[in-house]
Write a structure and sequence with these properties.
The chain is mainly alpha-helical. It has 15 helices and five strands. A three-stranded antiparallel β-sheet has the order 1-2-3. Strands 4-5 form a two-stranded antiparallel sheet. The protein is elongated, with a radius of gyration of 25 Å. The N terminus is likely disordered.
Length: 289
């Protein structure tokens, strides 16, 4: 296969960056032998037919290569026809199923931004937990998982975070990601600006935290459903089902939003400001009047 000059320069630049020359050029083949910078006991590899890039792209050949370097190598191979993608097709079908399911769940109803975020969280969680089977291409499976994880957190912007925060049952999940998601070059994270220690979250959302959040929300629903109905002096009895729908909470395991975002701003009034945040102050922080 003939490669374009631009692609050839990219391949050569990658090799020069991540390999050292092993002596002078071979006068017969007119090629250099290269030594990988990441191997503790590197073996000479002839600089031809993308052999150096293939070496870095495979974990079994170069286990110490940084993940971003391995991803770059795989991307170059795919772009320049140096990677056989046929064997990876079955793995692609398996890895993409949670995303296809999420799209189907969202298209079948009037979904809010928080609904979309919950679907994506669930899909990312499901893909990260998929086992590597005997028929899978291990390199491709690792590449697919790491790429999805990286892009998922890259799109977790302040607007997405606010949508989760305003969702009645997702506030703790949103707060746990505040220091990572709600940050701009000129604006520190919301969690860091607050004096409320409960708003201080980790730099990332782990799968265990997501699992714990879903379990916490489900526990609240069952506790509310089993507790006596409280009385309201203005409106009479308060139905538990009006606040937490147990049937909806059961869908959490499937990644569906437990309830809609209708009147979410009204559910957070200015009276909660003393506890940390209210909807209006959050909107003002976003520059939304």
């Amino acid at each position: 296969m003939t490669r374009a000059h631009g692609g050839g320069r990219q391949l050569d630049a990658f090799v020069e960056k991540h390999f050292n020359k092993d002596g002078p050029r071979n006068e017969k083949t007119k090629r250099y032998m290269m030594l990988c910078k990441y191997c503790t006991d590197p073996k000479p590899i002839e600089h031809r037919d993308r052999r150096c890039i293939l070496h870095v792209s495979k974990f079994e050949h170069c286990p110490n290569a940084p993940q971003d370097v391995r991803i770059e190598a795989l991307s170059l191979l795919v772009a320049n026809g140096g990677l056989e993608v046929g064997p990876a097709a079955p793995a692609l079908g398996t890895k993409r199923k949670p995303i296809v399911d999420a799209i189907g769940n969202l298209e079948s109803r009037d979904a809010s931004l928080a609904d979309c975020m919950l679907e994506l969280i669930w899909a990312e969680r499901a893909i990260a937990r998929l086992p590597i089977t005997a028929t899978d291409d291990a390199d491709f499976a690792a590449h697919a998982k790491s790429s999805l994880h990286r892009e998922f957190h890259r799109m977790n912007t302040s607007l997405h975070w606010l949508a989760l925060f305003l969702h009645p049952l997702c506030r703790r999940l949103a707060i746990s990601s505040a220091t990572q998601a709600f940050t701009t070059p000129d604006d520190p994270a919301l969690g860091n600006r607050s004096q409320d220690e409960s708003l201080k979250g980790p730099e990332d959302i782990s799968l265990d935290e997501i699992e714990a959040e879903f379990s916490w929300m489900e526990a609240i629903a069952h506790e509310q459903a089993s507790s006596p109905v409280e009385g309201d002096s203005l409106s009479g009895d308060i139905s538990v089902e009006d606040t937490y729908a147990v049937k909806e909470m059961e869908t959490i395991r499937k990644g569906l939003a437990p309830c809609s975002l209708q009147d979410e701003v009204a559910q957070l009034d200015d009276g909660t400001a003393a506890e940390g945040w209210d909807a209006r102050s959050l909107l003002r922080d976003l520059g939304i009047n």
